[in-house]
Amino acid sequence: MKVDVATVRRLAELSKLSFSTNEETEMVDGLNEMIAFVDKLKELDTANVEPLVFMTEETNVLREDVVEAPISQAEALKNAPSKDMYYFRVPKVIKQ
Amino acid sequence: MEQAVYDQYELVVGLEVHMQLKTASKAYASDANLFGALPNTLVSPITLGHPGTLPKVNTQSVDFAIKLALASDMKINTPVFFARKNYFYADLPKGYQITQDKTPICTGGEIVIREDDGTEKRIGITRAHLEEDAGKSMHDQDPFDTLVDLNRAGVPLIEVVSEPDMRTSREAYLYLTEVRKLVRYLDICDGNMEEGSLRCDANISVRKKGAPEFGTRCEVKNMNSIRNVQRAIEHEMTRQIDIIEAGGVINQETRSFNAADGTTSLLRSKEDAQDYRYFPEPDLPPIVITEDHIQRIHSTMPPLPKELLHKYLKEFNLSEYDANVLTSEKETALYYERIISKTTNYKAACNWLMGPVKGYLKEQALEIEQSPFTPEQLASIINLVDAGKVSSSTAAEKILPALANHSSKMAEDVAAELNLIQDADDDSIKQIAEEILAAWPDKVAAYKAGNKGMLGLFMGELMKKSGGKANPKTASGLIQQLLDQ
Predict the structure, then answer these.
(1) What distance in Å separates the CA atoms of residue B346 and residue B377, rounded to the nearest whole number?
(2) What are the Cα distances from residue B283, in Å, to B62, B79, B183, B269?
(3) Chain A, window 22-81: residues with a beta carbon less than 8 angstroms from a chain B beta carbon
(4) Model-level ipTM above the cut of 0.90
(5) pTM listed for this prediction
């Protein structure tokens, strides 16, 4: 697989990011390097290896349906770049 | 365009129903699952998607999915795996939704819908999967910013996807009504479309009748009542046929329903479609569901509406109408079940419940589960009427209100207290009847001359003199007998 400018633009769109022309070129190179690294790994024959999703063999790691004290409103909003006393504030995401 | 042109087309509808599960806590974290709290007060670092946090599945949401599967003949797939659906939106703190992609917890199954005349149709279920709700964005509260409340983020949802089996908007209406009824019986979702605890998207297409292939479908969102789902489908069918008849093609797109004028408008076209880049959720290890566990849940299942409906129709011989009214709300059905555990006059129990009892509750602004009448009391009224000791109107007007909130009193106690027991004693009624006839020789003559209307006059007088305690049937028989002598 080869990453081109179109791929980078599509990824940027999906991630709600925007890049300058220079940044786009950097991204294309960077991503291609990463993919080349993964392609190297792909040389290994894994036909008989089950895909690994989980780092442990554990199953049924469940939680009882019990409410625990939540964090406060002020704590919840603390790290937000834009907020008021009640809400997270973000740029308008819908055109009226 | 002429109706005949529209009639050449067939509608094809499949519905996706999202339901908030009635758990105490959220799907993958222990903050409360509640509607209507102050904004951003029901959140935790997990819900907010802070780095280093680890979600954990709520046992109850899995059990609720199992309940739904058992109630609609779905297959339960074990082990359960989750997946990440990636997209960026301000009310999705993690940047992905934990859902299920290729491995839904339930597949197959069906919902049976029933027309008023008793015709049934099976609507197939493709799949049902567990996922989490997003937060809430408010776009119109502030001139500059969108405000985000994350209380709803992480609330457990089950999404039920139907097969494209519905052919009329009425069938879609019945399907949705049935699904809502079912989850309310199971007590896993409160089914409130206005508050958004049950949401429905409709996939709608049309094709010429007899065509082998489906037409291109449009997905319609934002309908906040079952009636509006029906309206949206009707509008969409006309819109699509008009385009095709004008030589156009239907584009696969997502549309939004506008309740004010009943139309739909473009939300996004296929070209703007997201690429969700699903992959297995590594934070949630697989869940193995054992047959034992399923059996345990099976043993706690409430009676299902379709089972009760069948029982009332087949075993109790109630009418389609009665059986429907009794089973449409779980609370009514359960109350009826308790009453008929005390009496076998099923029809009378139904009439009493849907008539005088519902009337009394409405008057007092009470819900059915707040009814002040015990099943024993209602059974005692039915028995008293059946024994001919009081008329049903006396029972409804005088005895029923007196029983409210006196759970130890039975109908016969009240009837005795208020001196309402019908005089079954023929002799005393006969005596009154003789007195009346003796007092009005001219009316008796008129009757004998053919004026049968006089009978009503004698009856009225007799009921008055007996203080309403004479059994009307016995009394009228007696008067006639005396007159014909």
Answers:
(1) 15
(2) 17, 15, 29, 33
(3) 53-56, 58-68, 70-73, 76-77
(4) no
(5) 0.86
